[in-house]
Design goal:
The protein is of the alpha+beta class and about 425 residues long. Helix content is about 25%, strand content about 30%.
């Protein structure tokens, strides 16, 4: 590399030179374990650029690149090590644009330019860069990522009741079950970790394909995320497909598409703030958790009922903190608070029990949208529901609003399947606690 640069420098037509760009590496400036000779060669390019810039009329620059992705220069194992250290892989299309921009806009005398991260972000979905501090992502603290081709990343996460305390308060038929609301947060955190300069503004086309049941202690999960192949980006942001599966057999548990954008959209006002025909709910919140719900204290996010009707139910909800649900968590807040989302599901369950004496469980939803943070204050939740004649199928539209009447989270076109057989789940946590 150094020999080639010196030979080329001697063959230049110096009087007509407009620019001379040397492709060096950040290893020359900062060093890298196991690359002493490579680091020395690239630092030689930096010094050569400084000498030539003094003698030549044109622009001379040594660009100190970080590792390039998808070019074959770094093996999958090397890319995995870069990801563990939070090193950004440069997408070829972004790197090319950055090089042209440096040639066209860089100033004479700026002979060493470091391009390890940043200038290609914002043009479509950037190459994954797991540089976000895991302390800021409650469910992914200590989890490492393995990059793949075409922007694909993979994480391994072990569910363990000793750490995931919420699992003890979310059990069906005596076994801890991963709540759909936690799966949603896990997907959002995966995307946030890999694209840290973007906001997760929504989750779409969510599907619960198989429940995650812990029958024999801890259970490993594989979470994968990749930019969506379809070209449907626009005002709603870029699309990232996410999947939670069994790493052993490949069985898929959850599948969804996350939307990312540069910032959260402005929180809109509730277009229909008045919920008509509400009447008192037939029992208190404490009685509802004792008799109709199966959620333990960590998931008891309903504070008070506003009322219900044949078409809606409304209540006040309390947000949660990661430190309550996860042992040792220090992150200050969630992306999508699992207790708030699950409490909205609980209201749907209570609506169904009061109206048709059936217990529904969530199956899918079209879109979950995020407009503002939900931490630290009581929130109003309104669930508008439509059921079939027998009450076995429910479709809901849910809004979670702040005290100014602004929507902070909306859940659109959620579908639930209800059955009287599922009524057996009611009150199970109370009875287990009594035993």
């Amino acid at each position: 590399k150094a020999d080639g640069a010196f030979i080329l420098s001697r063959r230049l037509r110096r009087d007509a030179l407009r620019f001379f760009v040397l492709f060096a590496s950040v290893a020359g400036r900062f060093g890298n374990r196991g690359q002493c000779d490579y680091a020395a060669a690239n630092e030689a390019l930096n010094d050569l650029a400084a000498a030539l810039d003094h003698d030549l009329p044109g622009r001379v620059v040594a660009i100190n690149w970080g590792p390039w992705g998808r070019t074959g220069m770094a093996s999958a194992e090397v890319q995995r090590r870069f990801a563990e250290r939070g090193v950004q892989l440069i997408p070829p299309e972004g790197g090319r644009a950055a090089a042209v921009d440096e040639i066209e806009r860089g100033a004479k005398g700026e002979v060493e330019v470091i391009l390890g991260d940043g200038p290609w972000r914002g043009a479509g979905v950037p190459e994954p860069a797991p540089s976000t501090d895991a302390e800021e992502l409650p469910l992914l603290h200590g989890v490492t990522a393995s990059p793949g081709g075409n922007g694909r990343v993979e994480l391994s996460r072990v569910l363990d009741p000793e750490r995931d305390l919420y699992l003890r308060d979310h059990q069906l038929d005596g076994h801890p079950v991963l709540p759909a609301a936690v799966a949603i947060e896990m997907m959002a955190e995966t995307v946030r970790r890999q694209w840290p300069e973007s906001e997760v503004i929504g989750v779409e086309s969510f599907r619960l394909l198989n429940g995650v049941v812990l029958e024999n202690g801890a259970k490993p999960l594989r979470i994968t995320a990749r930019p969506a192949a379809r070209a449907d980006a626009g005002a709603d942001g870029e699309a990232i497909d996410v999947e939670i599966a069994d790493p052993a057999g490949g069985r898929v548990f959850y599948r969804a598409t996350c939307r990312v954008g540069p910032a959260l959209p402005e929180a809109p006002a509730d277009p229909d703030p008045e919920v008509s025909d509400l009447r008192p709910f037939p029992m208190s919140v404490a009685e509802a958790y004792d008799r109709w719900l199966f959620h333990g204290p960590l998931f008891q996010g309903i504070e008070s009922f506003e009322g219900f009707s044949d078409r809606a139910i409304a209540a006040t909800l309390l947000p949660s903190s990661p430190g309550r649900l996860l042992r040792g968590a220090t992150a200050p807040e969630w992306i999508f608070d699992p207790v708030l989302i699950d409490s909205a599901f609980q209201l749907t369950l209570l609506f169904s029990r009061a109206r048709s004496d059936m217990t529904p469980l969530p199956a899918r939803f079209r879109r979950l949208r995020r407009f503002a943070a939900t931490n630290g204050t009581r929130l109003r939740c309104v669930v508008r529901a439509r059921t079939d004649a027998g009450g076995h199928h429910l479709e809901t539209q849910t809004l979670i609003l702040n005290d100014a009447g602004r929507i902070v989270v909306s859940l659109e076109d959620a579908e639930f399947t209800a059955s009287r057989d599922l009524n057996r789940l009611a009150g199970r946590w109370i009875r287990r606690g009594a035993e």
